[in-house]
Amino acid sequence: MVLIDIKHGDKQLDRKNRYMDITQWVNRELVIGGRTVSNRLALAPMAVLGNVALRSIIADHGGCGLQFMEMCNARAVPHENRHMSMTFKWRDEELPYLVCQLFGSEPDTLARAAARVEKEGFFGVDLNFGCSVAAICKKNCGAALMKDPDLAGRIVSAVRKAVSIPVFAKFRTGWTPDPGPAVDLARRFEYMGADALVFHPRVSPDRRGRAPLWDHIRRVKEAVSIPVFGNGNVFDSEDAVKMFETTGCDGVAIGRMAVVRPWIFAVMARGFVPDAQICERYAHDLLDRLLAHFEPHIAVKTFKKTALYYSANFTFGQSIWPALIKGDTPSQIRENIRRLFKGNPLIAQSPNRNMMI
Asked: Active site includes 131?
């Protein structure tokens, strides 16, 4: 049993009751913008990887309070066809806990997109101020907006005025290691109407070569009164406990590890114990669900992007990954999966983090 010191949690709890099983902390409700979330775990927003197929697998395992979609272009969303779109795609049954993430740089455009999101029935809308991919930043979107706090604040304000659903802001430390600008931005986001923050404590140019500075999460949390989800390098229950204890965050947003092992939320929230066949089922299930939602060539392409993370499950994952992505048709991918498990591959107790780039 993993125990957690809840000194940052409910202030009414006395010392003798300060320690609880992690599942008890995870399963405490959280109110965001007047709406209740069932627990403290969230699927972090991820481009491509956080697609409708993966989200459905996570939902079937259970334990995830909120799920964030892939980034959606705010210019396209107002007239996007959900059945044809690559990113603005969802299952109706996930809307009560689904947050649509938008990127853009024009307040009015983001406000119109957010209005469409609310009309469709999403739990909330998330504004991306954290993506550091060059193609996004060159459009003055994502992390580039952290260089213009006034514009970032106007975006939050415009969206807040356009919708009544919860408004989230996802952002990073900034463009230098100094957490000061992120703390100031967190205060600005709250003042402009954000209901919750998702904070990833890495410098924007960094991808994942350096460890996230969790102390920056603490500083952001101490600066605002709205809920803060910490994000970055949570790979198991112990990591979630450590993040909560050292930062005081209200929830934990899990990204890459949810792609590697989508049952991680169930492990934390309800003590789920995976069986020996779970990795094999996951591979076939993911391919099936991608094919159910996307054209075959897109499904195969997306499976291949996921395969690097999936392969981190195995002791010899770096040799498994190239064999798993050979071919360009669903039948070839399916045969790769069958061939892999005929060889009884060794599953690592802890995934290979070097593959989770």
From this structure: yes
CA atoms within 13 Å, Cβ hemisphere of 163: 32
Q: Report d(CA 125, CA 299) in Å as an integer.
A: 26
Which is nearest to 76 in space by CA: 53, 96, 100, 58? 100
Contact 74, 104 (CB under 8 A): yes
Residue whose entry in the numeric block shows the structure tokens 């996951």? 282
Q: In this structure, are residues 172 and 202 in contact, taking their beta carbons and an 8 Å threshold? A: yes
* SS3 of residue 72 by DSSP: strand
Strands 41-43 and 35-37: unpaired
Helix locations, 94-148, DSSP H:
107-120, 134-137
Neighbours of 343 (CB within 10 A): 10
Strands 41-43, 66-73: parallel, antiparallel or unpaired by DSSP?
parallel
pLDDT tens by residue, 2-33: 544 444 444 333 333 433 477 888 999 999 99
Domain ranges across the chain: 15-270, 278-355
The Cα 141–Cα 132 span in angstroms is: 9
Q: Count of alpha carbons within 13 Å of 3, Cβ hemisphere only?
A: 6
What is the pTM for the complete model shown? 0.92
Catalytic residue among 72, 100, 131, 279: 131
- Give tens-digit pLDDT for 141-164: 999 999 999 999 999 999 999 999
Give the helix/strand (H/E) hosting 127.
strand 124-129
Query: Shortest CA distance to 285 belongs to which of 50, 56, 43?
Result: 56
Question: Per-residue confidence at 206, pLDDT binned at 50, 70, 90?
Answer: low
3 state DSSP class of 193: coil
Q: What is the DSSP string of 141-190?
A: -GGGGGG-HHHHHHHHHHHHHH-SS-EEEEEEEESSS-SHHHHHHHHHHH
CATH 3.20.20.70 matches 15-270: yes
Report CA-CA distances (Å) from 47 to 73, 77, 88, 124, 202: 11, 16, 12, 18, 17
